[in-house]
Predict the 3D structure of the following.
Amino acid sequence: MNFFRKYNRTKNLHRPPISSQNQQKTPLPTFISKSVSENISMVHTHFTLAPDLIVKKMVIQQTGSHAALVYMSGLANQMVINDYVLTSLLFKEETKNKSEDLKVLLGHQQEATTWFEIENAIFQGNSVLFVENHTNVFIFNTPGYPQRQVGDSQLEPSLRGSHEGFVETGSQNIAMIRRHLPNLDLKIKEATVGKRGKTKISILYLADVANPEVLQVLEKRIQELDVDMILNTGVLGELIEDNPYSPLPQFIITERPDFAALQISLGRIVTVVDDSPSVLIGPASFTSFFQNIDDYGSRWMVASFIRLLRYVAFFIAVFLPSIYIAVISLHIEVIPLKLLLSIGESRDRVPFPPLLEAFFMEITLEVLRESGLRLPAPIGQSIGIVGGIVIGQAAVEAGIVSNIMVIIVALTAIASFIIPNYDMGSALRIIRFPMMVVASIFGFVGITIGFMIFIGHFIALESLGTPYGSPLAPIRFSEWKDVFIRFPQRTLVNRPFSTRATQLRRAKNNPSKGDKH
Amino acid sequence: MKRLSHIFLVYLFLITMLSGCAEQLPLEDMTMQLMLGIDLSKDNNLIFYETNPVFSKTSKKSSETIEVKATSIRDARNKFDTKVKGFVNGSKIQVILIGKKVLEHPDWFSLFDTIYRNPKFSLNSRVIAVDGPLSSIMYYQSEDNVLLPLHLKTLIDTNNRRNSTVQTTLHELHRQIYEKGITPSISEIKDGTQLRLTGTSLLNHKGKHVHSFNISETALLLILQKEERGEVSFTHFSLPINNKNELFHQDDISFSASNIKTKIKSAYHQNKFHFDIKINMPIYLGERMFPYNMSKNEKNFKKMVEEKLTKQFEDLIKIIQAKKIDPIGLGLYARAHHYAEYKKVEDEWGKALATSTINVSVKVDLISTGNVK
Amino acid sequence: MNTYIKNEITLMQFILVIHGLQVGVGVLELPRKLAETAGTDGWISIILGWILTTIASLIIIQVMKKNPHGSILELVTQNFGKLIGKLVTILFALYFAALSVIILIRESLFIQKWLLPQTAFPVLLLLLIIPSYLIVQHNIRVLARYSEFIFYISLWIFIVYLIPTKEAHLLNLLPVLKDGMKPILQAVHSTLLSFIGFEAAFFLYPFLRQKQAAALGIVVANTLSMLLFLIVTIAAFSFFSPDEITQFKEPVINMFKVIEFQFIERLEIIFLTYYIFVISTTALPLLFLTVFCTSKLTGRQDRHSRHLIWFFSALFIYVLMSSPTFQQNSQWQGKIANLSIFVAYLLPLFLWMFLWVKHLFQRRELH
């Protein structure tokens, strides 16, 4: 019933496909020619203004035929080309074997016949060998583009979890997930998205656990994409989510391979975007954003306590400023007199209405947070101190805000940072502002109406066609073992309903009846 | 269509927002009444007082008090509004003081109509009778600048915990006024050399003040009402022992009682109600001013205490019957168990109670006599 | 019907939608209404009302069993022809529309009286319309989830009703049966009105997944509501003196006015604000049923949100032009009460008898 999605999708579908090629250029022929020199000139006419393209002509010792090796100097590893490709081609003696295939000291070697494949291969850092009298080329896997070391996850540090985070290379990311789940049922479907970016997108799932319907929805949405490039996971997530007008994130984006592997094992589907250091996990439910890998690493009582704290923080982050505004502008009778007197004293010098006061502080805080983020780490910290302490103190002393408001705003900020998922934390910060406005006008009634709209939205929302509110709405008490309180590991035998997994019981081949709402 | 309707919805919402702004009234624009006083002047005009806190740090006083002549609480509010800077708001009234002169006139309760009618008012304000002119209390300034309304509220509350006075809130007063089987009782204070609590004012059905109980009588009343809290302390409790001393009351004991069990049984025969009140009192001896061989004569000692207590209760009930009131709420028992008979007399319940027989028997258990013999 | 299978609801959702429909604005006034007619014996009327309601709702389930894949509208169309089917659809649409209008207006009146006395009435109504539209525009499944969710997050209210009992005077409840059975029987009328809402089973039944448990479900729903009414009534009767309870228009709210904690006072404000959620579980299904009927009439089931917009616009314009009052609202309520009793208690009986007789004739024809 998602109306926003409907026209969004149809728009994409009916747009005529834009040709990726420049009209002024002569189109690239589909197949390659037999002559090496012809092929080389074809390469040169198409890869114009590409000084990093290297074309090495030679005579292959093994067969004695003319050939040319083409690669991008920055993307391909030249050491590998020298040691394993060129050495074997140029210096190996002619063998009796006159067969077509060449012996190269490389495991990964492919053949291709079309220019399209050649172009892709060159851009992926492979080297392409044209051989005289051959209508196919040999592609050697020699990537050597700059890569980052696998390091700790920046956004989601953890105490007990592994200390490796995803890097920008899709294949490495997949490898990291595979290390956690060495299982034949871990299937990977690949797709290339983007007319210009040609981003490789891999969908990882457990074939016997993940729900085929969900998988189909995800695949279909990815295939229907018609964009220039997928910059990173966030872009992909926004392009394929169910309701782009919702403030709530509908996919979990994580940097942690262990968390991704855990989610796969629960029946969710992970989408790896090449060139992006994070992966997309779906279908997500609201409560899954409050889970963290450390919940499973530490003992269950501690984990449960922290998890409850997060839910409390959720309410503080969304409602505390609005409740405060509502109380002091409309419902002073609900607070006990002694507290009221101290609030009255602190507000006495403040010349602004509570809403303005709150907005002033909230916006100051958001600006501080953002500026701290943009600055290099050492300066960022000092900005936090300057902002938090100096501005707060000065504002109170100048009589611009009351000190209780400073406490409220600070509490709210801390509370929004405890949410383990960055996207969810940011979403809550956004929801806070309209709440504050309605609270200042309609008081508690306004907050209730705001909350009702939120509940209505959250109940109707779906992620990949799966209810977002599960297991709260539709309610599934049996799943509550891992929602507000994390029960001991040995009791967590079932997969969550919200993944709509086809096997309900973990570690067993025990198909469930499936999740109907 | 759908999109249009959403734009329309957002538009409506914005209109709602803009037009809803009338409600806002921040704390600092408010004059928060904390105490309301009602008194009669010498020429029988109603005078209303209110006290509200002053937040400004430049002011020396923590509160200000205003008095106006008015006909009702609502009328008074309008007149207060002309004298203070903010909008007068009655939602935080902590105590309502009523001069005894007002209480002398029946039907004063109709003044309180607006409090029950207007949803803004709190029903937890304590209602206090004031012996003497109200002005001396309303303008009372203690040296340490404590807010008087808060002071009075805690005074009532802690004394209620120590069973020295009743805790009658507006809600409770409403119940006691309308309930035919009980008559109202409210706390009473007096401003002499110092502000102090004197006990409980007993009102009749119409609200007219008929009698006042002092602090120790109030304790007995609370026991009969089953409203006593925690320990009830009895001091200056003289026993019939010939050990008189001019200066020191050497026949006195003090004790406290807790977990008091009061059982009230009612019966109806010979055209009148009979109430049998049994009180079981575990006591802890706190003070004995005379030598006494407790191990030998414990029974005798208990008996003396029981007799004295029974006497006290009986005296109390005699007063109640003489004044034709029922602060204990015996009418509730009569209604619950003898509904038909009660219905006949419910409008004149005070009179019916005056003619009924009430027996009190007290049983004392001596739990502890302390650390010395 | 395809729409019914696509939008199945669970047994729990079935129970809680019906329970939500029954518990609403009426609860706030129920103790007073009972005390006015039956004194402190009013709680007995609730139990009597519950027995009648259970019988009526079991008959509804029996009737619906005859045609498990359609609502009452299909049932009537099948048995009485298309024309009468259309007529019944219109009548049901009007009935639910009237109920939802009364509830929405009454809810806004309550908010205006207790919480926002200076806000204009149309603004308050608009405030309620916006979330209502956003939720009801979806299908029954979202609505059922909503009712379920609200029920669970409102469970604390059950406990809060018990807090005032620490100031209760249980003697108020004695003697039982003080004035005989007559006033108690008279008060049954107002308890029956509190139970109104279970007739939604006529429409919810085809959506229910576990149809064999429908009878159990509806009995559980009625019992839940009965328990709540009983708790509220007994709490109020023991809290207020029987001589004063009729003084307060909404004794339940007054009861909360007295409760205070160390950190919060005037619980009635919090309670009443939160109660908007509880009332929404009455109003939203009614709104849904209204547009369900009208969209049946036009034959386009997926367009019910459009009907909703028309409905709300009409309501809003009406409210802009006239200013509703409590008296007027109560008058309307009184007028619709008898219709409600007919729809909920007598209609199932008639239908059941009709179907039974028809069944008898068909059998005879077969033999």
